[in-house]
Amino acid sequence: MDESSYYADNPPTAVALAIKPHFGALSEKEKRYAHHLSRASFIGTRIVARQTSPESEDIYQLIIALYRACKGDWKKLQKEASISDQSLQAFLEYAAQFLANGGNYKGFGDSKFIPRVSADVIEVLASLSPNTKQLFGKIKAGKAGGMYATTQNPGLMHLGYPDRGHISSYYPDSGSVTEPEIGAVDDFLAAKGLLPENTRLRKLQNGDFELLIASAIKNPPLEDRDAGETTQWTLDGKLEGKKLKLVYGDHMEEMARIAVEIKKAGLAAANDTQKHMMDAYAKSFGTGSLKAFKESQKYWVQDKSPMVESNIGFIESYRDPAGVRAEWEGLVAMVNKDRTRVFGRLVEGAPAMIPKLPWSKDFERDTFIAPDFTSLEVLSFAGSGIPAGINIPNYEDIRRDHGFKNVSLGNVLSAKVSNERIPFIRPEDLQLYQDNRDEAFEVQVGIHELLGHGTGKLLQETSPGKYNFDVRNPPISPITNQPIENWYKPGQTWSSVFGTLSSSYEECRAEAVAMALSCEFSILEMFGFGNGEENMDGKAGDVLYASYLSMARAGIVALEFWDPKSRKWGQAHMQARYSILRTFLNAGDDFTTLEYTQKDLSDLHIRLDRSKIISHGRPAVEQYLQKLHVYKCTADLEAGRTLYEEMTHVDDWWGKDVRAEVLRRKTPRKVFVQANTFLDDGGKVQLKEYEPTLEGMIQSFAERDI
């Protein structure tokens, strides 16, 4: 195993997530609401670490303890430890990247990263106080390699199913648990109508199982338990005779503190909808009830255009290898009214755009419920990384009956890095790409969230004998031109049927929608580019060209997140983008080609024919998109898996030659330095921003860890 490929970025790129003007425009009541929600979000930092790896929480505590031991004076600590400038810098780089990812596995990629400095150096740093010495000893003694590489078991360098040689803290102390066992338990829970997002699963030595439920109390009132009086079942089927016990109180200390902050936020709510939302959050986090959490999401959808937008809880399931258990996440942000107006135009135009997608109304929702779509400036985002946009809730019944929200995170999109290298773009395209990529990405994110994740109908038997389509005259598949033969059965959901495939597959579908509809010049006009007429030579054409170039480039750099040993993709979005690049390359007539003259691919770049985006690029994407969509709508896992595995297959040329050049030219991901809020002696909320440096990143976490 080449340990150097797992080194922490050198250096990670620290960028300030600027928020001061937007926060300053809030009223005192709104600031207090934002403050308590921000506190609730970041209290979950230890939960994220605990969900990442066995050692992550201890590493987090070590970093914070070292900061406090030297009061942020790292040079003083360096002098006391007698280590070099290079060694100190390597530790700070690791610490900042760790904090940005919520643990020692990449939030975007799921592979472990390790310090560029020896364990001996960090041990010397940690020896300067009894607390840090104890923490480092605990990390060093860990079973999964602690902070460093597991050279004897390289599979542990990647998150995944334990029985495939990987590691997942969604299954703590359960090294013998298997993928089929996890699937059987999840199927059993689904049949009981119990949701898994806020759970972890532990397999005991006798073969029985414990379902750990995140809650502030260990014995919730019976009326607040989703499972009612039942606390244990005897399983059947593949696990016949084994027991499954419900254990409340996972992350208990954090959940209790979160619930307190949520209740305080409720006292500063702007309206009854926000109050009800906070009450439902507090009940869910206190008792572990996901029924209560779903109620919070209904209120959240109803809370239209608030000055302070937020969502908090166990939201996304990307990092669970089974694709059902979710990571703690908290968002608090302010609305950017000017940019929100742009997205409002996109929402207004959505009903006219949906019919342009390559499927009939049989595969689309009966009614498009216009969502709230806002451009936000992020105050706080707790989790393993910050996305550019969000489309939630993820619960299909809420989306169908109540709608959903889209948000674009403006200060994430606009965060700039000076002198950033941009590999794989031709020199003659570079200036146009730099001038238009931010605008192209905003268009892409807008379409991806609203018309990508926001479209489609799951054809299902909603309850025994009842269907949301005419089962006697089923829809005709545009792929086979025959009546559909598959649909979702009672109790089945998208993620329960497609399992580990679901996250990346859905991201691919949404990205393909964005690539198809970004060719609509009327949409580009909504964002202020062109006059709605097709014109590849004007500003709208520049933005469209930059969008396709950006997707093609993303498809190449995606190979960083494919592991050649496990032959496993580690990041849902990047797997999707690779498949779309493959779609571009398969479009024919040299629409997209990869050009190089050097055997080692050191001059590899993308040539994409701007004049063929409409004639070749869009049709190729739509053909792929149609299959992705119909297979999803009809619960056709077999066809969907065959298609997606074919399109994301990495052969030797891609996996060895191209990937080697991707790694050689890779650029560090951004590390976002976020502000904190505090209550002063007079009870007023104060904002504190930090320098966009490694030291500023660590300080910001240490000062919010109270």
TrEMBL record:
Its EC number is 3.4.14.4. It is an enzyme of class 3 (hydrolase). It comes from the Eukaryota. The active site is at 449. Keywords: Acetylation, Aminopeptidase, Cytoplasm, Hydrolase, Metal-binding, Metalloprotease, Protease, Zinc. GO terms for molecular function: aminopeptidase activity; dipeptidyl-peptidase activity; metalloexopeptidase activity; zinc ion binding. Its cofactor is Zn(2+). It catalyses: Release of an N-terminal dipeptide from a peptide comprising four or more residues, with broad specificity. Also acts on dipeptidyl 2-naphthylamides. GO terms for biological process: proteolysis. Binds 1 zinc ion per subunit. Zn(2+) binds at residues 448, 453, 507. One of its GO terms (cellular component) is cytoplasm. Belongs to the peptidase M49 family. This is Dipeptidyl peptidase 3. It comes from Lasallia pustulata. The lineage of its organism: Eukaryota, Fungi, Dikarya, Ascomycota, Pezizomycotina.
